[in-house]
């Protein structure tokens, strides 16, 4: 029996090593802070922090970092029923450069990391079948056996009646080539009910340098319910079968953009499971996207994703004060 409120997030969780100083290269950084991350895990914690019900499905290394990450999920109210540990591979690491403008560059240590070794037969299918929303990215599509596990999980969730939510979360350095990234990201495009892309991903996937409705609609597919394009400080745009429009951003003092998109997605999914009619009602959707924009904005005001993810009260306070 599907749990009408459960959001299951599938994919990678890793540790970002973030420089203690912004605006320097990795080589120049005097030191690094451990910051737990990985987009699907961030989304799960974003959901839980907003009072939603979240579970994470993925594989970690059977090492200190892996157990630390599993503990962080549990401490943040995310169910660990879908977490597996790999004896033979390490938890993934990423060294992140924070540019002066708060944007990031990445250097990854994954050869192979535990998340890449998740096999289809290891999946907790009962957990996946109980999801109201099944959320995923594209990093889990890069290599086998994780790719097959991703495909299987998606298929099982869909058969059980879940809404499929996709945020490609483009990380070019992890892919063999840009062409392969584009091809694989689009290979599962028509399966999703809800898709969120950033302006950068929109340009990458369409090959267009224009961020407009016409370009966005190139990403539309007939099975899609909601397409979202996030535009950073320019807010977000939404497209459904019946209506389209935009919602303004909140202006805050941006320190680190890590996790802002995940916070936005977590907020949106939380509201959709609470009231699925949001997807049919433009005025309700606009309110929800305003809330999601507020959550994304707050997340940029602190370093690291997870410590910066807001509560409902914090998001409502920003909306009220705006």
From TrEMBL:
It is an enzyme of class 2 (transferase). Belongs to the carbohydrate kinase PfkB family. Gene3D superfamilies: 3.40.1190.20. It comes from Corchorus capsularis (Jute). This is fructokinase. One of its GO terms (cellular component) is cytosol. InterPro entries: Carboh/pur_kinase_PfkB_CS, PfkB_Carbo_kinase, PfkB_dom, Ribo/fructo_kinase, Ribokinase-like. PANTHER family: FRUCTOKINASE-4-RELATED (PTHR43085:SF24), HEXOKINASE FAMILY MEMBER (PTHR43085).
């Amino acid at each position: 029996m599907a749990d009408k409120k459960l959001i299951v997030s599938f994919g990678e969780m890793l540790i970002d090593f973030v420089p203690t100083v912004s605006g320097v290269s990795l080589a120049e950084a005097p030191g690094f802070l451990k910051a737990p991350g990985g987009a699907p895990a961030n989304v799960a914690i974003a959901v839980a922090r907003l009072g939603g019900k979240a579970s994470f499905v993925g594989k970690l290394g059977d090492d200190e970092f892996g157990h630390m990450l599993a503990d962080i999920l549990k401490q943040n109210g995310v169910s660990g029923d879908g977490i597996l540990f790999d004896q033979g591979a390490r938890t993934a690491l990423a060294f992140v450069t924070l540019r002066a403008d708060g944007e990031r560059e990445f250097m990854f240590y994954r050869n192979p990391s535990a998340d890449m070794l998740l096999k289809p037969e290891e999946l907790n299918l009962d957990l996946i079948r109980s999801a109201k929303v099944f959320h995923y990215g594209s990093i889990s599509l890069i290599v086998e056996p994780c790719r097959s596990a991703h495909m299987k999980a998606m298929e099982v969730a869909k058969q059980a009646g879940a809404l499929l939510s996709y945020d490609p979360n483009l990380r070019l350095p992890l892919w063999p080539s840009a062409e392969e990234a584009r091809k694989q990201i689009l290979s599962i495009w028509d399966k999703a009910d809800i898709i969120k892309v950033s302006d950068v991903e929109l340009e990458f996937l369409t090959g267009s340098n224009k961020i407009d409705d016409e370009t966005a609609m190139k990403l539309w597919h007939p099975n899609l319910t909601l397409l979202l394009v996030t535009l950073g400080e320019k807010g977000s745009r939404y497209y459904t079968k019946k209506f389209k429009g935009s919602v303004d951003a909140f202006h805050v003092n941006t320190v680190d953009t890590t996790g802002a998109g995940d916070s936005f997605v977590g907020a949106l999914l939380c509201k959709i499971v609470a009231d699925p009619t949001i997807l049919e009602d433009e005025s309700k959707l606009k309110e929800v996207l305003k809330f999601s924009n507020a959550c994304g904005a707050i997340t940029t005001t602190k370093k690291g994703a997870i410590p910066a993810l807001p509560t409902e009260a914090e998001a409502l306070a920003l909306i009220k004060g705006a």
